[in-house]
Amino acid sequence: MRTLQVVGIVIALLIWAYGFWKYKGGRYSRTNFLIVCGLAGGLLTLAVFPSAGDLVAGPLRMERWNAVLFVTNLVLFALFFYVLNQTNSNARTISRLVGALARRRFWEENQLTARPEIAVVIPAYNEAENIGQVLPRIPKEVFGRRVQTFVVVDGGQDGTEQVVRRHGVPVIVHPINRGGGAALRAGYEVALE
Asked: Which of 7, 63, 78, 167 has the highest CB neighbour count under 10 A?
């Protein structure tokens, strides 16, 4: 057995052991553990039986190691898209969680007695210097219709929330910055509720 084969076997076993340790510790899902097992198994197969690469090389009409490189690149792309999908899914989940927590806190702090007919939603990120000048200018009534202003403080750190509260305006607070679009959606959702 050549040195390269021994190195391949050792690396495959280390990858499997690491995946097993993470899985048993609850830090890997079953899917992640199966991916690790598949990668370790493929490496182990090629290390022990290098001629296994011919199974791929024959149909592709390539040399053994070129075919192996081609297949490993395909696997790498598949793993990349899997990780990208997981990341996007996690980001959406976190965004929904932050929004839900902000709305829940809003309703715990605010008991709006009358339903407004017009809602003004103001997203604000680090606007402590400006928001205090804007809020008093918003009318309480327009053509006989009650106006309610909502300010969405989108993760700001400059005291915007305190300025809004001093003006007696209901405030929705995102603990982290989610962007202007997410802040507007949060304000619209509260206004519709």
From this structure: 167
d(CA 148, CA 10): 67
For the entire predicted model, the pTM comes to 0.66
A 10 A CB-CB count for 31 gives: 10
Query: What is the spatial distance between Cα 12 and Cα 16, in angstroms, rounded to a whole number?
Result: 6
* Ranges in the chain, pLDDT < 50: none
Distance set, CA 65 to CA 5, 45, 75 (Å)? 14, 14, 15
122 - beta bridge partners? 151
- Please give the Cα distance from 87 to 8 (Å, whole number): 30
Query: ∠ CA 53-68-86 to the nearest 5 degrees?
Result: 125
Inter-residue contact 47 to 9 (CB < 8 Å): yes
User: Which tokens sit at 108?
Assistant: 């715990």
Assigned token pair, 37? 């097992």
